[in-house]
């Protein structure tokens, strides 16, 4: 039964950005609601532009009941073309992947998005000609390969007025002075120098214009192999030890070339191993971490758990949640990456050893590990401007291939890998384990991950600084000529007004170190769906345990092989790294000092806000971490009120952040995945743990049946 809401009488037109053109549209499209298994929904118009796919209903025309956390560029019914993951058509109740030219047009269209939203459109009541136009238009503009200059980024840059906010404090690292300032900040300028050898990109188009190398490295050495085999400086520790990275030589070389390159490397290593430099430890990340293909495969499996069409699908996956989660291997990859970062931290902090990260291009896993090490060791990288400057330094200017890794142009799926998302997942683990240590919130990280697919910012749409610079100097469209003016994602005022930006700032950020041990006890996130893999059973069951065999397997895996790997990953005696890890965790946390993530067993969790925010069944209304935050904010506000009475002047400097998130006061109605899932309806299933409702439905069958478990131990 279809609950028909009459098609809208009034004309609703899409809000177009500068440079945005309407390409095709279809009226009388029915959009299903995802909340339950019924066919409820709303009629509207489906449009496709050179920037986005958008569904417009009569609510789109009104500004009433707008959420406080609203994106000014991408609305809740907008999908940027780069955010489209896959498109399926439904023919006689069968789903078929849509690509290229279509012979037959579907009666339903399902769009899966990279931010894990799922849109379900019924085209049964739409005119046939309009169906052909809109379906072929959406498939063509979002799925077929395109040229770089065809990205909306260029249309917007040539048409938008240049009125960016000048108050952005992010260091962009596109000037020599930025590198010199960073050397001075980290006290690395005694042993390292910023070089201009690559001006005009005469060394390599893959390297940035300016970068930092050891003082003893000559210009001739940098020029010899286009920057390969040269240790490039990332960061200096307080004790003088430094983190370096190096682009490795290709492996498939003839003997004479290999010998020359080996001799060259030996010379470099000898030079940077002498005083005043510390001892050098090399780490080839391509052999000590999962490959990019493994990371892509794991994430592809993992995201399928959250691309939920309907309530039935959710509860079907919930029955085998632990097995499915474990079989993706995504949490295990996060664990391995964090362990590698801890290993590097231990070398820098305890052994006072320089660490040289080696990778084919030094622009993928090198970026992940160097960024994580700095977040863990440098409290400046845990401020908002510091973290943004870190992303600029290591990723944007450092030459991470965002265009290829995100497959923005749909050129080659072989190059695609969620490397930047992997970093954000790892940083989230730290943010949720040590909230007071970070000036930004998990909402900030979620919004940053969404911004990967918004092509009005240049930040995540080029492979290198050279590619960006050559694109900028091109002629603008038709009328104007001269350089493009691209926006940077770090100007948050483009996407959010001041009220919404308050959600990105952490009101609990510790402005001074708090060594009180009790501060470390963070509340555990209670949820219908457990977000980490189990380590031990909480209570022995009288019946055969639903997850018992699976848990036993995990205990063996986690306590045996995995921790064994962790301990032996260093060249030091086996217990050295574990001692360092345990010793740090036995002391009170200094939120402005070194931070080490907890990596054992269920400490590695699913980033609930990002992955579950569109699934009503996974939300806890009036509960979760947001309810705790609301109570603490109330107390803080009360304390500040008293402070105002005591000292008017002093309070004005401190009262900003707490009053800004006013919506938290109504926490009883908020979802645990706030601010994305604001006031959604409850699920049609009762809010009981899976085992409970399955017991009620089919107790005997449940007792007899084993939970399916996919054993990947051979691959790990």
TrEMBL record:
Keywords: Cytoplasm, Sarcoplasmic reticulum. Residues 173-611 form the Myotubularin phosphatase domain. GO terms for cellular component: membrane; sarcomere; sarcoplasmic reticulum. GO terms for biological process: phosphatidylinositol dephosphorylation. It is found in: Cytoplasm, Myofibril, Sarcomere; Sarcoplasmic reticulum. It holds the Pfam family Myotub-related. Residues 520-529 have a biased composition (Basic residues). CDD domains: PTP-MTMR12. InterPro entries: MTMR12-like_C, MTMR12_PTP, Myotubularin, Myotubularin-like_Pase_dom, PH-like_dom_sf, Prot-tyrosine_phosphatase-like. Its main location: cytoplasm. Transmembrane segments: none annotated. Residues 510-530 are annotated as: Disordered. Belongs to the protein-tyrosine phosphatase family. Non-receptor class myotubularin subfamily. This is Myotubularin-related protein 12. The gene is Mtmr12.
